Amino acid sequence: MAELLHWIVALLASAFEVALIVFLCFTYQNRKTLRKENRRMRKEREVIFEFVHQIGEVFADAEEIDMDTLLKRILFFSTKTNKAAAGAIYLFNKDRDRLFARAVSGIFPPLYDAESVKTERLLAKSQHLETLVKERSVNSGEGLVGAAAAVGTGIIIEDGEVDARVPTYKDAFLQIHSLLIVPMRFGNEVLGVVALVNRIDGSPFTAGDLNLLQAMADQACVPIHYAGLRDALEHKKQLDRDLHAAQQIQASLLPQTLPHLDGVQLSAFNLPAYDIGGDYYDLIQIDEEHLGIAIADVSGKGIGGAMMMAVCQGVLRTRAGQEQSPARMLSELNRVLSNNLAEDMFITMLYMALNIQTRELRFARAGHERPLICRGCSNRNRELQALDSPGIAIGLTSPEVFDAVIEDMTIQLESGDEIIVYTDGITEALNEEGEEWGLENLSRLIKASPQNPESLLRTVQNTLTRYVGARQQYDDMTMFALKIN
Q1: Entry pTM
Q2: Tens digit of each residue's pLDDT (9 = 90 or more) over 294-313
Q3: What residue numbers bound the domain in which 314 lies?
Q4: How many Å is the Cα radius of gyration of the chain?
Q5: I need a surface site. Which of 134, 153, 272, 330 has the fewest CB within 10 A?
Q6: Which residues 6+ apart lie within 8 Å of 211 measured at CB?
């Protein structure tokens, strides 16, 4: 019995020793695995820190670097760290509906349209491959690149030869064995995609490679985002400089001073809705007896409208001395401008010729607002009438049709008569409730203001300012008035 008990104790001791050895071996192996994982994570962290440091140094010198240079540096570190043979960075365009390859490294095979790639051209000119990749845009959600951008998650393909999503190439230098694609995320927004193909050691990419590349891509988005903001800021500054120059040019087109005429009072104002307006007015000394008066509204605003204003002024001032008929003057303008106007652009214009001696006023109207005449505006009982005449806007029809419709009208002005012309930005001015000021309000104000033209226009301008309040206007306001003493 004692021997049996001794044997059992010995057996248990041996079992305990074996269990202890197994436990120690397991613990050692586990600690070894943890140390290996810890070294891997520390190395990965060091790689990320180094990557951020290197990119930060590049970005710190942003005054001398553009977006493409920054992307090339990011791609260089991405391919080097992940031991990839080639790679590409795709970024969204401004409309965020397509991706374009902005940086390419190594022999990066096109991920689309493999059948259209001509190997002989690639061998003859290596630059052709990069051009091929950069020229082919990718729609959001299209293929592997578009899918990674649309979904916002990475894609790893360990064996490209058995994955139907990977294009197949017969030539060895274009074959895709393994592939990594990760989105470049800044907050909740995907800026683009990083794609890497084929490890240089021939082994497939791993989940660790995917995680590392994703971490690098997310870190890279910070300088990319702010570099994009800087590019946008520089672009805006350049636009502001161009707009300022255009403003100065446009301001020089409008009369700087109005002529002083015996027995005639003149006044005008122009308020562009934007930095550069599409309204135009001018006074032209046709000859010793006649004064030409033009007011126009170009449908396109901004620089395009300003350019058309300049052309209008050039034609008017060149031809005015040779053509006293307003209708024929507008016909000449239509012939010159109609072939050069964009499809969505046209010009309404009113052109008048005043005989300074006889006070006879001839006018023609190319689709513009009708001029208003106030009879006896110095008296309390004033009559206001809109002067009608046929005509079509410049650029809307053929010269033959335009010439057949346009017609001169003549009116004899008397002492106390006042002519008021304006663009539709005056009557279509909107208040904060979206209501138009309207011709009725303008007419009522003119009838209630037995003043000289300068006082009348100042009253109109002040009234409009109060009416529209803080609401942004979308059309220019221009007004001109003349009064016979």
Answers
A1: 0.57
A2: 999 987 666 677 777 888 88
A3: 246-484
A4: 39
A5: 153
A6: 44
